[in-house]
Amino acid sequence: MRLDRFLANAGLGSRKACKKIIRTNEVMVNGKRVTDGEMLIDGTMQITVNGKEIPNTPFVTLMIHKPEGYMCSMIDENYPSVMNLIPDLYRKRVRMVGRLDQDTTGLLLLTDNGILNARLAHPKTKVPKKYYVTVNHILRPTLVELFQHEIDIGRGEIASPSELEILDEYHAYLTVHEGKYHEVKRLFGHFNYDVVALKRVSLGPLSLGDLPLGEVRVLSEEENDKLLEACHMLKGEQL
């Protein structure tokens, strides 16, 4: 791949803008200054712009701890977009994997791998999504067994069996496998509960862990491999 195209793909601007960046800034490839945008690079090379390393990977997947009050949209609408929290380096490169409501917090993925995005979002892949749920009145122990069956959540939709773990009177973990629209809220609504707070704590093999609220990080190679495996994918696979 040409250097100017690489920088454009990394979100530094248009191809034309990246040509200017290469001419007028300190662009280093393996420690040597480069001014030729047509230079061919490969995945073994270290590339920096003004001392900042540009990740030289074919695809990138980010994890963000989404705060309340942000919308999963590409632009600001009724609430600010989560894209405002993404570093400039990746903002034009990645797309959200599914959506979280503006009042829902927790683990959200963004990636530029098209097949990975599609597989994670598709119900047939059955990647588990685990939520920490707070409800408005006391949870009945009998709900654990009821959630293990298909549930009519309205609008002609049937939710697949899920796993409920009651933690105390008002808090539980719920693991779903499809990701239907407002699925968690509609599941509890079927049993006349209101969800007053909702946080996604894991998705497939990935856990939110101690990532601070509003912070973003790049998945490690090990995490990425586990995610690809969960989606029955091979490295390098993309739309």
Question: How would the blueprint of this fold be written?
Answer:
Elements lengths: L2 H7 L5 H10 L2 E3 L2 E2 L13 E3 L2 E2 L7 E6 L21 H4 L3 E2 L7 E8 L2 H8 L7 E7 L7 H4 L4 E4 L2 E3 L3 E4 L4 E6 L6 H8 L4 E9 L2 E2 L8 E3 L2 H10 L9
Parallel strand pairs: 7-13
Antiparallel strand pairs: 1-2, 1-3, 3-4, 5-7, 5-15, 6-7, 8-12, 8-13, 9-10, 11-12, 13-14
Helix pairs in contact: 1-2
Number of separate strands: 15
Structural class: alpha+beta
How is the biggest beta sheet arranged? Answer: 9 strands, mixed
Shape: elongated
Q: Indicate the radius of gyration in whole angstroms.
A: 21 Å
Task: Compute the separation of the termini in Å.
Answer: 18 Å
Parts with pLDDT < 50 across at least 5 consecutive residues: none
Share of helix among residues? 10-25%
Task: Give the percentage of residues in beta strands.
Answer: 25-35%
Mean pLDDT: 91
**What's the total helix number?**
7
Order of helices and strands: HHEEEEEHEEHEHEEEEHEEEH
